[in-house]
């Protein structure tokens, strides 16, 4: 299922599956932004799938967390204890509004079984993807452009025999996190109730440009309506 609009008032979460090495044949680092609406639908809003060094990984995570004002961050414990932790905490302490990381520790259940656990929510139409062509990124490793949703579709259709399942695996992290909540219903007199991906992304950028030009604005009431 694909969504055409993003409901206002969603809670946003950043889910990270880091790769342990930055080699041509190694797994990709995957970061997925999930929005949860008041009906407990999970919308895939943004994401990256790339081969990153530790600093790039942390810088990208910080950027996504700030852009979407996430309520929580789930980060698989692989490669997190050393350089990732140092870089992330060093940057997070200097910034406001970024939640602490909730580590996703190794489970007795295999990755394949975790991904299979997504099936009921997919069957019930609770997972909604962005349309193809919306989440297009340029790889820091290869320099080539890629479509995040096309990569997700390849994993989905080839599972469990495909070479990669990292994007799907990040989706399993929601059930392993302690602080994940659906959005509160908006009051009926709040208009408009929905925004497209392009509108919400443009409005986030507009607010940031406004605050950069008007430093005192952050103490005013100018805020993106998706809150």
Folded structure, characterized:
This is Terminase large subunit gp17-like C-terminal domain-containing protein. It comes from marine sediment metagenome. With 227 residues, this protein is α/β, with parallel strands linked by helices. It has a single domain (6-176), classed as 2-Layer Sandwich (Nucleotidyltransferase, domain 5). The protein is built from 7 helices and 10 strands. The chain has helices spanning 54-68, 80-92, 111-116, 119-123, 148-158, 166-172, 197-213, and strands at residues 6-7, 11-17, 29-36, 42-50, 72-76, 101-104, 127-128, 136-138, 145-147, 194-195. The strands form 3 sheets. A 6-stranded mixed sheet has the order 6-5-2-3-4-7. It has a two-stranded antiparallel ribbon with strand order 1-10. A two-stranded antiparallel ribbon has the order 8-9. A hairpin with a 5-residue loop joins strand 3 and strand 4. The longest helix has 17 residues, at 197-213.
Mean pLDDT: 83
Largest sheet: 6 strands, mixed
Instruction: Write down the oligomeric state.
Output: single chain
Given helix and strand content, the structural type is: alpha/beta
Q: In DSSP terms, counting alpha (H) and pi (I) runs of 4 or more, how many helices?
A: 7
Main sheet strand line-up: 6-5-2-3-4-7
The 3D shape can be described as globular
Radius of gyration: 17 Å
CATH topology: Nucleotidyltransferase, domain 5
Distance between the termini: 25 Å
Percent of residues in helices: 25-40%
Please identify the top-level CATH class: Alpha Beta
Strand content: 15-25%
Tell me what the CATH architecture is. 2-Layer Sandwich
> H/E series, N to C?
EEEEHEHEHHEEEHHEH
Low-confidence stretches: 216-227
Instruction: Tell me the number of strands.
Output: 10
- What is the total domain count? 1
């Amino acid at each position: 299922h694909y969504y055409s609009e993003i409901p206002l008032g969603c809670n946003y979460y950043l889910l990270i599956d880091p790769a342990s090495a930055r080699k041509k044949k190694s797994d990709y680092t995957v970061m997925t932004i999930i929005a949860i609406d008041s009906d407990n639908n999970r919308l895939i809003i943004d994401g990256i799938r790339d081969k990153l060094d530790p600093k790039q990984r942390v810088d990208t995570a910080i950027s996504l967390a700030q852009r979407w004002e996430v309520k929580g961050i789930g980060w698989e414990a692989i490669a997190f204890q050393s350089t990732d932790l140092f870089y992330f905490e060093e940057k997070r302490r200097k910034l406001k509004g970024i939640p602490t990381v909730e580590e996703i520790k190794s489970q007795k259940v295999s990755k394949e079984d975790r991904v299979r656990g997504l099936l009921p929510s997919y069957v019930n139409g609770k997972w909604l993807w962005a349309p193809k062509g919306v989440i297009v990124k340029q790889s820091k490793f290869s320099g080539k452009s890629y479509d995040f949703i096309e990569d997700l579709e390849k994993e989905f259709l080839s599972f469990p025999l495909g070479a990669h399942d990292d994007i799907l695996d990040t989706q399993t992290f929601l059930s392993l996190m302690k602080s994940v909540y659906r959005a509160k219903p908006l009051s009926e007199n709040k208009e408009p109730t929905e925004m497209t991906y392009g509108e919400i992304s443009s409005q986030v950028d507009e607010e940031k440009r406004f605050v950069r030009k008007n430093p005192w604005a952050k103490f005013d009431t100018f805020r993106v309506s998706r809150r």
